[in-house]
Design brief:
alpha+beta, 344 residues, Ribonuclease Rh, Chain A
């Protein structure tokens, strides 16, 4: 009883400077994560007891959102009468980017930090890194990855780009790595030293085409999740579903057809970039970088990187995301002139 009274007194003292009215009894600034425990209505306004949700927006269960304010409408600070002000994706109109959700709909957590001491949630873009596996295998042939040893020319991964990694970056182009997890005893190329990704409902088999390491059990997906996925606000299922969807969209746009026509040959790097621009617009060159490596005097295509906005949802259209994305950093590319499209 005494403890309960003390908590109320402390809360009143904490909030006394932010009291606005009898209804908005206590409103305080916070800087935390709100983890939705279920699908929750997200209101643009809750003023005077009127719940306004103009587009029927709901928070997705398991998804994390930045939380900026905590509002208590009850003098006893009953959690059922508390609301959290959360940030939603930037593509919503400005007036709808922040929403009120009931505190009981989820839980508040501290922001995790990455291994460089960066606080998560401060990124302004994502970078989707795709691999041209036949070329990548030439670069990493000494590591004997199963997908490099056993893949055949008819495999999806032999004729399409596949997933490499999906990372959030800040405005200084610094990637977020290993958030809330340790990388002790994890050797650079021993991906299977990472624990299995805890995702009971993922059904990882559905990603076999664009993430061949899952099928071949070389554990690249573990590395991607623990290195970068843990720094996002997504669950493992959301992280891999979004990434796989974007990779498939890129291939289905017509890019894979162009690649298949040129497998085993040398092409001008500009012809590949022009093909990408044909499907994703002239400005795509500002958001996509080719990745090459010189091996045995040949310049091999090993993959590419696509720069995307800092807010992405399941089912988003890749072309629209590229149009909204910040420009890639200005750095010299190794993919100049003739490049080899390797084959298995």
């Amino acid at each position: 009883m005494h403890k309960h009274i003390l908590l109320i007194v402390l809360a009143i003292l904490c909030c006394s400077s932010t009291v606005r009215s009898e209804e908005e009894y206590c409103q305080q600034k916070i800087d935390e994560l709100f983890v939705a425990g279920q699908r929750c209505p997200a209101y643009a306004s809750i003023r005077n007891g009127k719940m306004v949700n103009p587009d029927d927006l709901v928070l997705e269960a398991g998804r994390k959102y930045g939380a900026h304010e905590l509002l208590s409408l009850d003098r006893d600070f009953d959690p059922q009468e508390q609301w959290v002000y959360v940030h939603v994706p930037e593509r919503y109109p400005t007036q709808y980017r922040n929403r009120w959700v009931r505190r009981m709909c989820g839980s508040l957590q501290k922001f995790p930090y990455d291994n460089n001491g960066q606080k998560t949630g401060r990124w302004d873009k994502f970078v989707l890194s795709l691999s041209w596996l036949p070329g990548q295998c030439m670069k990493y042939s000494e590591y004997k990855r199963p997908e490099c040893i056993y893949s055949i020319p008819l495999d999806y991964s032999a004729t399409n780009f596949v997933f490499q990694e999906f990372r959030p970056e800040d405005s200084d182009n610094k990637a977020y790595n290993f958030c809330g997890t340790q990388k002790d005893n994890l050797e650079k190329y021993s991906k299977c030293k990472f624990p299995e990704v805890a995702c009971v409902s993922c059904g990882f088999d559905k990603f076999n085409d664009v993430i061949p390491s899952i099928y071949w059990k070389s554990c690249m997906e573990r590395s991607a999740w623990y290195k970068h996925g843990t720094c996002t606000f997504w669950t493992p299922e959301q992280y891999f579903t979004i990434a796989a969807n974007l990779v498939r969209q890129f291939n289905k746009s017509g890019i894979s057809g162009f690649m298949q026509k040129n497998i085993g040959t040398e092409i001008d790097s500009n012809s590949l970039m022009n093909e990408i621009k044909n499907h994703y617009g002239e400005e795509a060159g500002q958001h996509i970088s080719l990745q090459c490596e010189k091996i045995d005097e040949e310049l091999l295509l090993i993959g590419l990187e696509i720069y995307l906005p800092g807010h992405i949802e399941i089912g988003d259209n890749l072309k629209e995301l590229i149009e909204e994305a910040p420009n890639k950093p200005k750095k010299e590319t190794h993919c100049k002139g003739k490049i080899k499209i390797s084959a298995f």
